Amino acid sequence: MNLRKTRSxxxxxxxxxxxxxxxxxxxDDFWALALQLSDPQVDLKLVVSSGFETKxxxxxLAKFLSHCGRSxxxxxxxxxxPECLYLLPDEDGLLQQQEEFVEGCVTNPVxxxxxxxxxxxxxxxxxxxxxxxxxxxHGLEAVKALINSTPNLTYVVQGxxxxxxxxxxxxxxxxxxxxxxxxIMGGTLEKDHExxxxxxxxxxxxxxxxxxxxxxxxxxxxxxxxxxxxEHFEEAEDPDPKHSSYSVYLNGDSRISMAMAQLQLAxxxxxxxxxxxxxxxxxxxxxxxxxxxxxxxxxxxxxxxIVATISDKGKIVPAQPEDxxxxxxxxxxxxVSTHAADEFKxxxxxxxxxxxxxxxxxxxxxxxxxxxxxxx
Length: 376
What we know:
This is Inosine/uridine-preferring nucleoside hydrolase domain-containing protein. By secondary structure, the chain is of the alpha/beta class. Helices cover 37% and strands 18% of the residues.
């Protein structure tokens, strides 16, 4: 009886989430969504498209969520801005938007072909902001209504700040009044430029100051967030699955893991995610923010309260409280160790493979070895 009661209570402790994502160009947004969909404590109330061609990205989200078996989740179209057609790798190998083609550019891999045949009328959940084909159409009223009716929700930002900026234009106290908790992927502690914050630094600063509970996950901790495979891993005498998290994911049976596998191949076909052929993922920036947002295993990473300003290129610059533009917020500065980062990656791979949250500890290792057993 006690065990049943414990399990029942666990299923009722869901936390309401809104995810604001620019999913449609790169895989990390989808990895983050896959992790959020796999966590039974995450009650994903609404997914909001952001970043440039939001009409198209809303369609991409609808198809992906359908493939994951979650077409019950509501979607809101964010505000539209023009999409750059080209990307150019910077000195760190990260792809940056380019207005015109220059040597070294690749085509911006928005999943146009992948989503073009998806019939939006087949989506079971509500899709806000698609009543018109006009670029000015959006569904942010639905976001505002949900925030006003659901205090203490978590708002995860996996893109730029335009949607939050427009909501603040309409209601400057919306997030603080409703005690919204923000977890934001963006900014850099050590480099000069970061993509998400640099796209809209003005609204980024407003976003960081609009709530009393803001945690930023900059790019530095995310550089450890890649799933890797190991050749002949299964033949090792006592393989540690944490060293082959990509194999764990690929052996998954859930609809979520299979949806991710198809999406990886679709992006690889555009030429920007060829790492899939090497048995690894790209850097999963947004997945780290998604993990921090769940509040699980806080012992794996370091959080620091800081006062800082944000440069026009997205750098987080330490400041004093009296400095102009200074903002107080929390930052995930690093993992406590490389082992902790491996724990996160393995947990993520196993959860997506199973389509549900898995327990931590030795049982993960044992369940993985049994999962590798050949079937006839």
